[in-house]
Amino acid sequence: MISIKDVRKQYGEEVVLDRVNLEIKKNSVSTIIGGSGEGKSVLLRLMIGLEPPDSGEILIDGDNIVGMRESELNRIRRRFGVLFQDSALFDFLTVGENVAFPVREHLKLSEQEIQNIVQDKLAGVGLSGEEDKTPEQLSGGMRKRVALARALALDPDIVFFDEPTTGLDPVTSTVIFNLILKTHSERPVTYVLVSHDVQRALEFSQEVMMLYGGQIVAHGKPSEIRKDPDHPIQRFMEGTFGTS
């Protein structure tokens, strides 16, 4: 489980996160929604340990990563997979080499074992036989699928997704979300997404939380949210949340 307690983050005079509290259940698919500039990606970076909060606690299965030594933090991060907003593939590596990168970094395996993992993960996202292509030869949707394969390469306990469908057309976005659900059903670990796409969040998530004004102001299961026309997340979808 991920537990965030009274987390605050400020850049200069701008308070981005103001005493954020939330819990993400183990092995769930949970999505944090909110408008542009609300701090969703900042919150994700704090959970991953890429930067520290100014105050508060971030517990990963009971371990508070705030103030943790880098060696200990790396031990925790070894359990993470991350799909970044821009896919963050290495353009100088092939598709196969991109997927193999975290495996080579963290595991001592034979070349054949590494290639078996690469082929398995690429097959899981529908990219068998694409190992020798370079990222520049791929469409945006294919790049996202390679990034997903890489995020899953180490069989992580927690996978973070930063706006996984940004820049994709609706059809390709559906393909990516379906792949996210497919991989979760095959290996149900904790998936944490941040997204501005509320409708898809309600379709694909088990729990949805809304970040607004630096705080989590609403949360619930999609079935509960849909039933309540006055639910803040419903009002956010309609563009009436935060208006008088």
From TrEMBL:
Residues in ABC transporter domain copies: 2-238
Keywords: ATP-binding, Nucleotide-binding, Transport
Annotated PROSITE patterns: ABC_TRANSPORTER_1, ABC_TRANSPORTER_2
Keyword presence, Cell membrane: no
Gene3D superfamilies named among the record's database cross-references: P-loop containing nucleotide triphosphate hydrolases
Name this polypeptide is given: ABC-type transport system involved in resistance to organic solvents, ATPase component
Top-level taxon: Bacteria
PANTHER family, per database record: INTERMEMBRANE PHOSPHOLIPID TRANSPORT SYSTEM ATP-BINDING PROTEIN MLAF (PTHR43023:SF6), PROTEIN TRIGALACTOSYLDIACYLGLYCEROL 3, CHLOROPLASTIC (PTHR43023)
Family matches, as CDD domains: ABC_Org_Solvent_Resistant
Classification via InterPro entries: AAA+_ATPase (IPR003593), ABC_transporter-like_ATP-bd (IPR003439), ABC_transporter-like_CS (IPR017871), P-loop_NTPase (IPR027417)
UniProt-listed SUPFAM superfamilies: P-loop containing nucleoside triphosphate hydrolases
Molecular function GO terms recorded: ATP binding; ATP hydrolysis activity
